[in-house]
Amino acid sequence: MDVLVVEPFDADVLAWLSARHAVRYAPELAQQPLAFRDALAGVRALVVPPSVALDAVALRHARQLKLVARMSVGAENIDLDACARAGIEVVRPASASALAEAEFAVGALLQLLRRVPIVSAEGLLVGRELGGSTVGIVGLVPASRPLANLLGAFGATVLGYDPAIHSSDAAWQRAGIPPVGLRELLQGCESVVVLLDFYPRYTGLFSERLFEECKADMVLVSLGYSALFDARALARALNGGRLAAAWLDSVEPGLLEAGKPLSHIDTLQVTPRVAATTRESRSRSAWAVARRIDTLLKAANQRGAGAPAAAGAAQVDGEAATQPQSDAPAGPAGEPRSA
């Protein structure tokens, strides 16, 4: 068997891939860990959902595996080091969900600005408009550019910050986002959207000291992992009024349990990682993943069974991932992630 698909998959894309390779579609294996490991024998390409752990133990059952793919950019369920040691390419669509995330962020901002009122100069409780305000984007990722474009269409001013990208980097100009320091961004923005990719060194990045820098009544929307925030500091900022409201689309298990700092805060909105998931984004992701699988397996067949495939993690561009018009894979595959 060439390909095992455990993730729910677009039917048209699955048919396209099945016409070119031997494919087993078995999403039920996501709930059957032992059967899943047994099914890995002989598989050369694998598509897994976030709920399925692919660790070193599982990889011992997958001696022929050349590629593992996720339908989303995250890889928290995949042992990347073990895959690299085994020469297995890890594929994630880099920009297939960018527009979905940008639209979600704008919708969340609009809701919070209107639904959570502030006191006006006349002493009235009123909502606010997105147009004419200044919005900070923390994290220069594929969703940053479409988000900046949408905010600009509303008439908002956009500022940006990313701890890993210098202010002189040309990526800021390509995205159309003026870079500033994080404190300057927090001090000057009525709203902030956090898109930053999570790494352990960013744990608790948004601390008590940073929240003290926030402009009064600031609105916060985060599509990044909640570990980016010091939970106690975020709770104090919300309860104390420094933040008017916050929306977290990615919350770690147990963070909202009774007795925890963020439990029962009326001005905190939480959703279960839905920003990136739309009908259109999943279709783009499926085509991007399918084309990369097709490219790799064809190349492996041409090299011969004994030739090793390139190892590493690949971010596949899914922004223009539409149905190919011929048997040849359409567009580039395996490109590095870019903003």
Secondary structure layout plus pairing:
Blueprint lengths: L2 E3 L5 H8 L4 E3 L7 H7 L5 E3 L8 H4 L7 E3 L10 H6 L3 E5 L4 H18 L2 E2 L5 E2 L7 E5 L5 H10 L3 E5 L8 H6 L6 H7 L2 E4 L13 H4 L6 E5 L8 H9 L3 E6 L19 E3 L8 H25 L8 E5 L23
Task: Summarize the structure in words.
With 339 residues, the chain is an alpha/beta fold. It has 2 domains: 3-96 and 279-316, NAD(P)-binding Rossmann-like Domain (Rossmann fold, 3-Layer(aba) Sandwich); 98-270, Rossmann fold (3-Layer(aba) Sandwich). 31% of the residues lie in helices and 16% in strands. It has 11 helices and 14 strands. Strands 2-1-3-4-5-14 form a 6-stranded parallel beta sheet. Helix 1 (11-18) runs parallel beside helix 11 and helix 5 crosses helix 6 (144-153). The longest helix is centred in the C-terminal third of the chain and has 25 residues, at 279-303. It starts with a strand and ends in a 23-residue tail after the last strand. Mean pLDDT is 88; it is low at 318-339.
CATH topology of the largest domain: Rossmann fold
The rounded Rg comes to 22 Å
What is the beta-strand fraction? Answer: 15-25%
**Separation of the first and last Cα atoms:** 36 Å
Coarse morphology: elongated
- Quickly name the level 1 CATH class of the largest domain: Alpha Beta
Instruction: Give the biggest beta sheet.
Output: 6 strands, parallel
Q: Which residues sit in consecutive blocks of at least 5 with pLDDT less than 50?
A: 318-339
Strand order of the largest sheet: 2-1-3-4-5-14
Summarize the amount of helix as a percent range. Answer: 25-40%
Q: Round the mean pLDDT to the nearest integer and report it.
A: 88
Number of strands: 14
